[in-house]
Amino acid sequence: MGEIKIFGYILxxxxxxxxxxMPLTEVVFIYRERxxxxxxxxxxxxxxxxxxxNYNEMRTTDAVSYKNVFLDAFEQAFASSFDLExxxxxxxxxxxxxxxxxxxxxxxxSVEVTFDDDPFGDKTISIVTVxxxxxxxxxxxxxxxxxxxxxxxxxxxxxxxxxxxxxx
Length: 168
Known about the structure:
This protein is an alpha+beta fold. The chain is built from 3 helices and 5 strands. α1 packs antiparallel against α2.
């Protein structure tokens, strides 16, 4: 009789510990994914900046870049970083959808790109701000169940600033 009581206590403690550890593990996954999105934003900005510079104009003191070329290169780089498919662009808002292989890992992404041109003396420095939004796809089965039953949604947001500057 005492063994059953001890087994019951162990089972209750095990369930209690599991119900605490699973959400904490999911929090670690959320921060990991947020870091991955932030790094992808920054790296995509770097790639897009290199593609968008007009190197013929760099003989002067101003670094000139083409915004449409920047957006196209950013779109390609960000899509390849998460294996996403590019959806139609609306102004400076880029939309991405996960490929068939990654549908259970990611939701749709929306990235807002803003350009801020600030003249500093004899150079033109453009500050690019990118902000990505996506709903998080829970990885642990228990959290997926809570997401389905309780309609719990967590929106991932990451934003980065990139200074487009070429020193002559």
